[in-house]
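User: Second chain of the day. Same drill as before.
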Amino acid sequence: MDETRRSFLEGLLSLSTPSGFETDGQRRWLAYVEEYADETRTDAYGNAVAIYEGDPDAPSIAVAGHGDEIGLMVRAITDDGFLKLSRIGGSDRTVTRGQRVTVYTDDGPVSGVIGQVAIHLRDTGDEGYDDIAEQHVDVGVADGDDAAALVDVGDPVTLETPITELADGRLAARGMDNRVGIWTAAEAFRRAVEADPDGTVYAVSTVQEEVGLQGARMVGFELDPDAVVAVDVTHATDHPDSPGDVGSDVELGGGPVVARGSANHPALVGAVRDVGDDAGIDYQLAAAGSRTGTDADAFYTASGGTPALNLGIPNRYMHTPVEVVDPTDLNAAADLLADTAIRAGEFAPFDTGV
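Assistant: Same format as last time:
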């Protein structure tokens, strides 16, 4: 990954974008793609779309990621000045204690910590994990009035972790889910546009995926492409704690993951695999017999049925502050989807042959 693409990814990762509060990330993403687009637009809830206008008689393809992340929210302020919490999306109660956080207020960010009782004062014989609703943020004030002067109920909260480069160029950070997806959508769009494809190409950054695929439901009907690929993280299972009876075998650095079954249209699956095989781009396969758990599940029922595919970026430790990805998988995914968009006319129409 060259310096410009790395800077774009790190810029996305540096922002706070919990579901419902995606504005800063959507702006950063649009600023990147608008250089290559004939048009960019947003809707009322902040779904962002970049468009390259091709021949209207040629097939159109959309590459989408979701721009939101999991997070927390201030649900109450105690008389003692502590902030009580609720979840935004699937935040994990086992990793929030003892973490630095930022509360994003209308007047700017406020630093805090999620408290943890010292080990000396706890009964360590039979410990469990408190629900997030039972945890609290300490912003350092003396009482509730001082806290209320700084924050409001409903302000979003995110964990604060640095972007860390590990060995072999792998990266760890909060929010890889799904900054890597919108990075891939933007990069696939750029690479396809620079090849002057015949058909129309869309890049999409959706909102509110983590709370029910809501943005994809909105934008899927509005765009109505001939095919859509939803790029999201998928579980890398190549670490010691990964249960062997859940998910498919997926490795970091093994290439993007093509899901099969349910929402994943067989003709689109075949097209992406053919493109990968022809270009020598490594990819992996995963089973999705019932659902993908991604925006593909919303896209494929839009506009009477839209051929869809979930392409996964391998990710260790999903929904934790230390998600780990391999940038080579991101580059491979962008190349794979750019080539698919360029060659879309060879594979269309995308149907089952019934």
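Residues 59 and 344 are 6 Å apart (CA to CA).

User: Great, on to the next one.
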